[in-house]
Amino acid sequence: MKRIGILLLGLIFIGAACFGCGIAKNPPRDPEPETVTGGDSNIKGGLMEFQTIRIAESGMMAGSTVYYAEKTDTGVHLEYYWGSYYWDGNEQKEVKQMIHQIDGDEALYQKVARMAAKYDLISWDGFSGSDPDVLDGYGFSFDAALADGKTISASGSNMFPDGYRGFVTEMDELLSKAEITEREFDGGDYTILLPETWAGNVTARYREGYISFEVQTEVQNRTIFIIYNEPYEYGDGKDGYQTIKKYQKDGSDWYIVMHRFYEADSAYNEMNEAQKAICDALDEDMKKIAESLELK
Question: What is the pTM of this model?
Answer without folding.
Answer: 0.79
